[in-house]
Design brief:
Blueprint (H helix, E strand, L loop, with lengths): L6 E6 L2 E6 L11 H13 L12 H11 L7 E11 L5 E11 L22 E2 L17 E11 L7 E3 L15 E7 L6 E2 L5 E14 L8 H12 L3 H10 L5 E8 H4 L3 H5 L4 E10 L7 H4 L2 E3 L2 H6 L9 E3 L2 H5 L1 H5 L3 E7 L26 E6 L7 E3 L3 H11 L6 E7 L4 E7 L8 H4 L9 H10 L7 E4 L2 E4 L2 E4 L10 E4 H7 L2 H5 L7 H10 L23 H7 L10 H13 L8 E2 L11 H17 L13 E10 L6 E10 L3 E6 L5 H14 L1
Parallel strand pairs: 3-5, 9-17
Antiparallel strand pairs: 1-2, 3-4, 4-6, 6-7, 8-15, 9-10, 10-11, 10-12, 13-14, 15-16, 17-24, 18-19, 18-27, 20-23, 21-22, 25-26, 26-27
Length: 681
């Protein structure tokens, strides 16, 4: 008899086991340590520490390794669920809970290979009651089941028990020679959509162009690769080297082309021995250039991405490689489908069969695999951006011919939605629009004007626009073609309209640097806010003295902004409150406004003066709502004369725009025409 059924549950080595109290001297030794060893061994794949009956431990270990070879990187946990007495006093049946983490998402605590969440304590009982397996969650195994093994009394062993080994110890349906095979199906990638639900990125037809080495003699493959590289515009030497190093049956990608781009090349590709163009689809924007620095690209996962994903991404997966595609890859990529099949053993060879069977002789076909576990793929969730397809396309068209790095950003003041964030080709793929860090020059005078208003000035206050101004020995001057008629005692309105540098420099003792930084934050510049994508929202030092503070008054020195940040300044003026730019929905909480409607009204008046009587008069006849603007030119570098950034910001109705060119003559002459073209549509 077992004696008393009172049991004490314990955890040893991470495996839940049980001990029985009060056993009689006639009972076999406690079998729980052997059950524990078996659970650990099945989990780790090393059976050397388990006393097996008629099977050598090394043979069982090799068999187990072969069974799970097709499971890839999947890991398993094994725990003792129950240890039950059978009809034979000299045997026990151990029930094991087996859990597989098939996609790397489970993260159970404790020692690898044997840990699981706490389960109901089990003891040696007269009958087995299978434990319920929990539903799979991100913190528990994907696939769970129970299996059993028989323990037999063996007085000649140290533990007093041996285990009857068979593949069924791992899974009840396994037999000798059968294996487990894990397959993975990547989920459908979701679209990226824009304003109004317009589809921006979706699966579009492409051709994967490359060399199929099964279609060309190995000796000729490098020559074919060189010829193909010339047709599709990739590095001939590098591609030929990859083809030569690839396996004899490999397909080596040269490039993936949009259907329209591939069409005129297909005949040339077909004429090259071994070259093929395979129809496929890929998540793409309407054009190659459309918001590319922001949206990013997709492609086959790199080894680094696979390693960093913690099992979520495997080799061969198509994933986001940059931009929003990479940032929101988990959302867009969905959940892959998983399937575990039991692969039966190959039919045994008939020793009496002839080596070359005739047509009349039948050969036994292998049994079909059986699906043991299946999880359907779950498609990704679309990502909603605020980009307006028409405005983004227009902005990119305006910048298409600009040589230096350039950008146009358009924001809807009423919502903060970024409607366009275009970076010109001169940036070579860099998101100048959202990440660029540049001195904003005289466009920053909108910020300085707010600080001066708070210090007591009005639009009609008199300021001194002198030919030059000096601060701590440093001379500041106006731009070369500043109108001579606007020199002298002028109003703040006139100083903004004509962009008089010295008028603002001469006010450097009226407002300190902290007031400048606070005014900038009130207009959204340098204020912390989640845009939904990587973005530089500007930087204005809160402390500066002397020439550094004076330079800040005209948007130079240590003041930095991106085109997005300056568009946000214009948007705040138009909206009448502090705006936080948003590129991805749902938008982050709007920032607490520190800009009053009265302050914004004066700033609107000052920006209108630029168009009505100042450096932005060319915008006066733009159709639609009245335009307010501010030009900006910022010196940079060590050359003499210094190179200059060209800026212009504007408001029109519920639209705020910033235009930037890294190297230009001036704001009105370089950025101005681009702004006008954009506003006129």
């Amino acid at each position: 008899m077992i004696g008393t059924k009172k049991a004490l549950a314990v955890v040893a080595g991470g495996v839940l086991v049980a001990t029985a109290a009060g056993c009689s001297s006639d009972d076999p030794p406690d079998a729980t340590p052997v059950a524990e060893q078996l659970a650990q061994a099945v989990a780790s794949g090393d059976l050397s520490g388990v006393a097996l009956g008629e099977t050598a431990a090394e043979d069982a270990t090799a068999a187990l390794e072969a069974i799970v070879a097709g499971m890839g990187e999947a890991t398993r946990t094994v725990t003792v669920a129950d240890l039950a007495r059978t009809d034979d006093d000299d045997t026990r049946q151990v029930t094991l809970d087996v859990g597989w983490d098939l996609d790397g998402s489970a993260a159970p605590p404790g020692a690898p290979g044997t840990e699981t969440p706490a389960a109901t304590p089990a003891a040696e009982t007269a009958a087995t009651t299978p434990a319920e397996t929990p539903a799979a969650t991100p913190d528990t195994p994907d696939w769970t089941y129970q299996t059993t093994a028989i323990l037999r009394v063996a007085e000649d062993t140290e533990a007093g028990w041996t285990v009857d080994w068979s593949p069924a110890v791992l899974h009840p349906q396994l037999t000798d020679g059968a294996t487990l095979d894990l397959s993975r199906t990547q989920a459908a990638r979701a679209d990226i959509v824009g304003a109004g639900g317009a589809v921006i990125v979706t699966e579009r037809a492409v051709y994967r162009v490359g060399i199929d080495k099964t279609r060309v003699d190995a000796a000729l493959a490098p020559d074919s690769a060189t010829a193909l590289a010339g047709v599709v515009g990739v590095d001939p030497a590098a591609f030929a080297g990859r083809v030569e190093d690839a396996g004899e049956r490999a397909f080596v990608d040269a490039i993936t082309l949009r259907e329209a781009d591939a069409a005129p090349l297909l005949a040339q590709i077909e004429a090259i021995e071994g070259a093929v163009a395979i129809p496929d689809t890929l998540a793409l924007a309407p054009t190659r250039e459309f918001a590319r620095p922001i949206l990013g690209t997709v492609g086959e996962a790199t080894a680094e991405l696979v390693e960093e994903s913690g099992g979520r991404v495997v080799a061969g997966d198509v994933v986001g490689l940059s931009g929003l595609q990479a940032q929101y890859d988990e959302q867009l990529g969905g959940t892959p489908g998983l399937s575990v099949e039991l692969v039966p053993p190959e039919p045994a060879a008939d020793a009496t069969a002839s080596p070359s069977p005739t047509a009349t002789e039948e050969t036994e076909e292998p049994a079909a695999p059986e699906v043991l576990f299946e999880r359907e793929p779950v498609a990704g969730t679309p990502l909603t951006t605020t980009l307006d397809v028409d405005l983004q396309t227009r902005a990119e068209s305006v910048l298409a011919g600009v040589g230096p790095p350039s950008a146009i950003v358009a924001i809807q003041p009423s919502t903060g939605a970024v409607l366009a964030a275009a970076s010109g080709p001169g940036g070579e793929g860099y998101s100048t629009a959202t990440l660029g860090q540049y001195a904003p020059g005289s466009t920053f005078k909108v910020v300085t004007s707010l600080a001066l208003l708070r210090a007591g000035l009005t639009a009609d206050s008199t300021v001194e626009c002198t030919p030059a101004a000096s601060v701590d020995g440093r001379a500041f001057e106006n731009y070369s073609d500043y109108p001579s008629g606007a020199i002298g005692s002028i109003t703040l309105r006139q100083a903004v309209a004509n962009s008089c540098n010295t008028a603002f420099i001469n006010q450097n003792t009226v407002v300190d640097q902290a007031a400048i930084a606070q005014a900038a934050a009130s207009l959204g510049l340098g204020a912390e806010h989640q845009v939904g994508a990587p973005a530089f929202v500007g930087s204005v030092p809160a402390q500066a003295e002397g020439t550094a503070h004076a330079a800040s008054m005209i948007g130079q020195g240590e003041v930095l902004a991106s085109p997005l940040a300056m568009a946000t300044v214009a948007a705040s003026v138009a909206a009448g409150h502090t705006v936080g730019a948003t590129l991805v929905e749902p938008a982050a909480a709007a920032p607490e406004s520190t800009l009053t409607a009265d302050e914004a009204a004066v700033l609107q008046e000052l920006m209108r003066a630029v168009v009505e009587e100042g450096s932005g008069e060319f915008l006066g006849d733009v159709p639609g709502d009245p335009v307010g603007a501010k030009t900006g030119t910022a010196e940079y570098g060590t050359e003499s004369p210094p190179r200059t950034h060209a800026w212009m910001i504007a408001t029109q109705g519920d639209l705020a725009v910033a235009v930037f060119v890294e190297d230009g003559e001036s704001g009105s002459r370089t950025a101005g025409p681009l702004l006008e073209e954009f506003l006129r549509g």
